Amino acid sequence: MALATDETVRDFPEATPMGQPLDWSWLRGTRAEWGMNPVPGRRGLTMMDIATGTYGEILDEPPYRSMAPRGADIAEDTPDMGYILNHKSQVWADNVIELYEEAVARQWSSARDIPWNELQELPSDIEHAMCQLCTVLTEIEMIATDLPAKWMWRMNHHFVEAKMFLATQIMDEARHADVFRKRALANGGGLLLAGSGDESLLRSILEAKTYTQASALLHLLGEGFILDVFRQGEMIAPTHVEKKIFRLSMQDEARHVAYGTMHIRQAISGDPDVAEEIHEALDHGEKFLIEFGTSPVLSSALAMLLGGGSEHIEDKGFPLQAQMATKIFTSYLARCERAGLNRIDRTELPLDLLGIDLSKFDKSGV
Amino acid sequence: MSSRVNQLGFYQDLADLMNSHPEQYETLGEVDFTLGIVMVDDHGADLRVRLSFEELGCSEVSPLSEGTENGCDCWLKGDLPAWEEMFEDITANGLATGRRTINSLTLLGDRIATMGDDPMGVDKFFRFNQTIQQFLDGAAQLVPATA
C-alpha cells in the first residue's frame, strides 16, 4: 500500500475542537488497492477502464450486503441493507458495463433533438391513428421504469454497474413516455383511448415473483415486442419527424433488450433450474402479449398507419400487419433462443396463425 | 450517383463526410460498430465493404472478402438495384423517406436483409441505427461532387 509517508508519522488530533472523534485510519493505509492509474481511452475514462484489479472483480456471491462500493475496504460492522438479490447470476449480464457507457453516451432530448416545427398537417384518419398509437405507447412505456425501480433497491450494491444501467433504462423510458405524449399533442391532435387490453400485460410484469422472471417478461417479451413495434413505427411513420422519434427510441429499446437477453442467459447459466421459472412466467406473459398485440384499439390504429390511410386498411394494412406480426414473434422466439431458452417446443402461441413456419425458423431471428 | 454506389470509393466519401462533421453526430453519441455491406450484382461484380465506426466517425472503409463477413458485428445483404433505389431516394429527398430507410428495408427484409452470426452483434444494428441512417443520408450531400 503506497502512502504519503509524511502523514504516517504525524500525530493528528483525535477529536475536533467540538469534541467529536476523528478517524485517520484511511490515511494510514487500508486493504483496498491503491495506485491503479487507469488510462482513459479515446472515449474518455469509461467504467470499463476502471474495472481493474479488485475493482473489476464481480464476485458470484459478494460477502457484504451493504452500499459500500466494490473495491473499498469495508468495515466489518457495516450494516446489512437487506438485499435479496445477492448472487451475480440474479442481476448481471456480461455486456452491462458496456451498455451503461453506451446509454450515457447516446442520451437524447425529446425537446431539442426532434424537429417538432417540421411536423406536417396530416389527413385526419392518419393523425388519429398516430395519436392512438402514441397513447398506447405513452401508457406502456413507464412499465420499464416502474419494474426496475421495484427491484433495484433489492440488488446487492456489489453489482453497481447493473443498477447504473437500469438507471439509464429508467431515464430512457421516461423520455419515451415524454416523446410520445408530446407527439400526441404536437400536431393538432391529442391523447385517445387508454387502458384497453394493455394493463393485464403490464400487471403481469410488475407482479413477477423474481427479478429474473420480471426481466424475462419485461426485457425479452415486453421490450422485445416494443423494439419491433418501434422498427415498424419508423416504417409507418407519416413524416420524417415521427421516423426520427421511432428510430431514436428504437436505439434505446435495443439496449434494454440486449441487457435482458444476456441477463437471462447468465441467470440460466448460473442456475439451470431458473429456466423452468422463466418458462412459467413466459407461459403466462405470452397470453397477455397476444391479448395486448391483438387488442382492437392497437390493431386498428396500426392497420390504419400501415395501410397509409382508411382507404387501404384491408388491402394493405391488414396484410402488412400480418407480415409484421410474423416478424415480431419470430424475433421474440429467436431472442429466447439467444438467451438459452427453447420456447419453440413449449410456447402456446398460435404459430400457424402468426405465419411462423418452424421448419424454416432462423434462430438468428433477423 | 447510381453508378458509384457499388464502388468502394463511394463509401470512403461517405466516411470522409462523416469524419469532417463529427459535431453532426455528437448528439447521437459514440459508436463502436463494424458493419458489412454486401451488394449482390447479377453480373458477378458484387461489392463487399467493411465499415468500422468508432467514436463519432467512420474510422475504416475496406474491402470485405467473401466468406469473412462474420468478422463484422453484422452485415446488410441485398441486390444492387435495391441499394441503388435507396440511395436514389436519399439523393432525391435529402434523406431516406417512406419505406426506404435502412431500418424499414431490413424490417421487410425481402431485398436487403440484416445478417450476422453473433446475435449481440446484430443487436448493434438497432442500437446504432440512427447513426447508420445519418451516415447513409450523407449520400445526398455527395451529389454535387459526383455529378
What would you note in describing this structure?
The complex is a heterodimer of chains A (366) and B (147). Chain A is mostly helical. In chain A, 55% of the residues lie in helices and 0% in strands. In chain A, helix 5 packs antiparallel against helix 7, helix 5 packs across helix 12 and helix 6 packs antiparallel against helix 9. Chain A is globular. By secondary structure, chain B is an alpha+beta fold. The longest helix of chain B is centred in the middle third of the chain and has 14 residues. The termini of chain B are close together. Chains A and B meet through helix 9, helix 10 and helix 13 of A and helix 4, strand 5, helix 5 and helix 6 of B.
Helix and strand content put the structural class of chain B at alpha+beta
Strand coverage percent of chain B: 15-25%
> What's the tally of helices of chain B?
7
Number of strands of chain B: 5
Query: How many helical stretches of chain A?
Result: 13
Provide the residue-averaged pLDDT of chain B: 91
Uncertain spans of chain B, ≥5 residues at pLDDT below 50? none
Shape of chain B: globular
Radius of gyration of chain B: 14 Å
Structural class of chain A: mainly alpha
Please give the largest β-sheet of chain A: none
Instruction: Considering residues with a beta carbon less than 8 A from a beta carbon on another chain, report the largest interface and each chain's count.
Output: A-B, 38 and 33 residues
The main β sheet of chain B shows up as: 5 strands, mixed
How do the strands of the widest beta sheet of chain B line up side by side? Answer: 3-2-1-4-5
Order of helices and strands of chain A: HHHHHHHHHHHHH
Residue windows where pLDDT falls under 50 for at least 5 positions of chain A: none
